[in-house]
């Protein structure tokens, strides 16, 4: 059993919070076993530091967590207080500035495919390098300006060429040079840059839950759908997964439980298993079918069939 | 029709290729606990090392899973088998074939290599006895011509393990 803190330990924690200032305190658990403080670094980025206080605080050191690539080793001795925690963490933030400015530089200049919304702790970026190839970079948070660890993705032939160049040139990496210029020197190519149009960048791009891509490949086989964006969303509000209608059709057609009525496939969402109905060949439903579908509830009501037709209408609207 | 232990090696479709690249990136960034992807240049066949979870019958034993992807992944399930030696388990045949519904009838494109691996590890972890399936010899004999487990009509009799 862990013993309950006595009133004096509450008083101690209060006075220590007083010292660091109540304005930085974001939240505290009712038993004061965990605190969250909001700190700003020199670039104005805001960092939430979660501080878990052990029951025998301040005898044992608190444990820290925050959205950082790695956490500082907390030095804790007899007279240590919350003030020291904040101070040590602030120094740690200082140390990480170069890492974050490197990541910012990558995000701002290069064409980052993933993650779309990186957290401050993420030290990887997948960037497009053109010709259907991409590069996954792992930035060393301790030495952000050094040669990053990489993995290549793309057609074998191109990858082979790129990795050859990389091996030939990697010594040319300059720890004091701009990151993207270093990459360009090593790869002997000009890298695709991020699309500056701010509006399109801030729009969250939804990827299809089946093929994981935003745009379908450009392919004659896909006809009108070639290069298309997700155009079907699961109706279940707690799922709302986006799909390319063609991907969903392909999936529904590959399993035996799917039923087809006229040119509509009835099956289940691969994510939430709720019923879905997709019109074949995508696109908008023709007006004749639409008229017919609008009649469906009445037809079924009068023929005495139990059939949930509202789903169908919803999908075809 | 003849078949081989590796599924018909038709090259991955564009869609399959793209999706697998994304799965691989996701795996590199946050691999499922207890698994290691053996780095190769082959996107269509992954070899994954799995370590038995602590506190289970297979604790700290290492096995290898071979994951082969069909041309139209993820519309079709990947073929997942244990490479020799396969763990002793009531649902794993000595030829490495695994009796697990999500690899066959219950596959859905919402699953990933990573989620399949986690299911296999949890199947291992929940086993209370190290033994082969009752029909092991008959099944393995039937597969001698190199039949893929995906051609087996599986009967999933047990949802506890």
UniProtKB/TrEMBL annotation, chain A:
Source organism superkingdom: Eukaryota
GO molecular function per UniProt: ubiquitin protein ligase activity
Assigned GO CC terms: Fanconi anaemia nuclear complex
InterPro entries xref list: Fancl, FANCL_C, FANCL_d2, FANCL_d3, FANCL_d3_sf, UBQ-conjugating_enzyme/RWD, Znf_RING/FYVE/PHD
Gene3D superfamilies: RWD domain-like, Ubiquitin Conjugating Enzyme, Zinc/RING finger domain, C3HC4 (zinc finger)
Gene Ontology biological process terms, A to Z: interstrand cross-link repair; protein monoubiquitination
Domain FANCL UBC-like: 8-96, 98-193
Pfam family, one: FANCL_C
Ranges for domain FANCL C-terminal: 204-279
PANTHER family (alphabetical): E3 UBIQUITIN-PROTEIN LIGASE FANCL, UBIQUITIN LIGASE PROTEIN PHF9 FANCONI ANEMIA GROUP L PROTEIN
Protein name in the entry: E3 ubiquitin-protein ligase FANCL
Originating organism: Dioscorea zingiberensis
TrEMBL record, chain B:
EC number, as in UniProt: 2.3.2.23
Record bears the keyword Nucleotidyltransferase: no
Domain UBC core residues, every copy: 15-161
Catalytic machinery residues: 99
InterPro entries found in the cross-reference section: Ub_conjugating_enzyme, UBC, UBQ-conjugating_AS, UBQ-conjugating_enzyme/RWD
Enzyme class label: transferase
Molecular function per GO: ATP binding; ubiquitin conjugating enzyme activity
Keyword Nucleotide-binding: yes
Keywords on record: ATP-binding, Nucleotide-binding, Transferase, Ubl conjugation pathway
Origin superkingdom: Eukaryota
Family: Belongs to the ubiquitin-conjugating enzyme family.
Function statement: Accepts the ubiquitin from the E1 complex and catalyzes its covalent attachment to other proteins.
Listed name of the protein: E2 ubiquitin-conjugating enzyme
Organism listed in the record: Dioscorea zingiberensis
